[in-house]
Amino acid sequence: MKKFLYIITLAFPLLANAQDFLVGPSVAYQSQAGNMLKVGGYYLQPLAGNAVGIKLEANANLAYFRDQFLVIPEGSFTFYPTFNNLIVPFVEGELTPYTATPKVGLSVASIVEFGFGYGFDIKTKQDLKPIEGFTFSLGFNIPLNAF
Q1: Could you tell me which of 139, 144, 45 has the C-alpha nearest to residue 94?
Q2: I need a labelling partner for 90 at 20 to 30 A (CA). Which of 45, 82, 119, 144 fits?
Q3: Residue 140: in which H helix or E strand, if any?
Q4: Distance (Å, rounded) from C-alpha 68 to C-alpha 95?
């Protein structure tokens, strides 16, 4: 049994592949029923030999609507259909407790992103206007482990 574990331990580096990924903070401006500052973090994982990629993001949307300062949590999933160029398209889905927002856009080296879409109202918070309608955003992802 010890020999078997020893062989597996020695052979494991031959079977394992390095996994490249990016992780770091993100900051963005979004206009959707008002102006919002999005602050959070992201994890970007290339797949299929760096041909495509996915990004998971958790943000806090900071907004000032109707004399109220709001912090709205948000999660998003982004799919990059290609990583072969400097400028790549993406498809993104954002979800908050109040809005579901599908988006499409362009990313420059996965650092600068411009997206637009339409937000659908899920639930309207009392004393707050619905956060829905057309949206656009300009975001910056700061990779901490790029080099």
Answers
A1: 139
A2: 144
A3: strand 133-141
A4: 21
Residues in the chain: 147
b/e 117-143 (16+ beta carbons within 10 angstroms → b): bebeeeeeeeebeebbeebebebebeb
pLDDT digits (tens, 9 = 90+) for 89-112: 999 999 999 899 999 999 998 899
Structure tokens at 16: 């394992």
d(C-alpha 55, C-alpha 90), whole Å: 10
d(CA 138, CA 106): 10
Element (H, E) at 41: strand 35-47
pTM (predicted TM-score): 0.79
**pLDDT per residue as tens digits for the range 12-58:** 444 444 458 889 999 999 998 889 999 999 999 988 877 889 999 99
